[in-house]
Amino acid sequence: MNPTLDLSEITQKIGRLFIGGIPGPELDTNTIRLIKNYHLGGIILFSRNIEDPIQLARLCRDIQKVAMENSGYPLFLTIDQEGGGVARLKHPFSQFPGNAGIGESPNPEKSALHFASTTAREMSLVGLNMNMAPVIDVAQAHMDAHLVGRSFSQDPLLVTTLGKIVITTLQQGGIMAVAKHFPGLGKSDLDPHLHLPTINATFEEMESVHLAPFQGAIEANVSAIMSSHAVYPALEPDIPATLSRKIITALLRKKMSFNGLIISDDLEMGAISKERGLPEGAADAFEAGIDLLLICKSQSLLLDSIELIRDKILRGNILYERLERSLERINKYKKRFLSPRKRISLKAVKEYFGN
Prior knowledge:
Layout lengths: L6 H9 L2 E4 L7 H10 L3 E3 L8 H18 L5 E4 L1 E3 L2 E2 L11 H6 L3 H19 L3 E2 L24 H17 L3 E7 L20 H8 L1 H8 L4 E4 L3 E2 L3 E5 L4 H11 L5 E3 L6 H4 L6 H9 L4 E3 L3 H17 L4 H19 L7 H8 L2
Parallel strand pairs: 1-2, 1-12, 2-3, 3-6, 6-7, 7-8, 8-11
Antiparallel strand pairs: 4-5, 9-10
Helix pairs in contact: 1-12, 2-3, 3-14, 5-6, 6-8, 11-12
């Protein structure tokens, strides 16, 4: 434990591990308090937060202003912009068919490039800096409905190729890419938003089919990889990947040599909240090796999670060095993608999208 740090400093360092949601289209007092007092790491935006490009640009500008005035660290501002059924940015933002549409198009590589370059330009313009995409799960014949249309293909090679194009192009456009859902959710027959799925694949199948696109993403220098809330008996029985040190640290960090950020899927999803609960699920995910903890809706659960991790560090149940390692990675990517911070120009937004 670092004896020179006071309680509020430790709390604020832990706050930087979290990406949280906000209730509406404007910056509210509770969120301002969260950014000011807890130095939140990032904010994820949903349809409830987005009305049009100008409003979104103002919201992103206001959020970063509060963050810079209080902690000096800009925030990760992220959305799910996969295209197709999972696209938070509606018209007049450019609309795309989603991964399945890209994979089935006459020239998938060209379609992937067009999607990623346009999406990066438009996200960057309004002040967003991270896309929770691409999905690089390999499609299977009996995949759960929540994944239909979100996978590029049943062919791991094509998924790998298109995933790499999207990752490289987004990041060249200044948007951090997040490959998901590690170690592969294509074989899921349940929706982890509601239940805890079990992926019954042998280790050989995991390696040759489901892990291959993630290895490709690592080769493409993907900024972040998102964990899946599913159990993989071939890798570790009974524990979802998000909470498994074997899967997150031993497999992804060490065996696959991933040095970027590891992000949890939303910890409020049924697969974690029903089985493990919050804040315990957040602390377990952090202990397993997750750097950024995603809690998309409840700010009170987010605060409870910060407090539990702080208590575990103070008691020595989690080593202080574990916190420092995640913060080092977070700072590295904020420096690379978020500084110098691009000024959000409402004039440029108006010119691009029209009034």
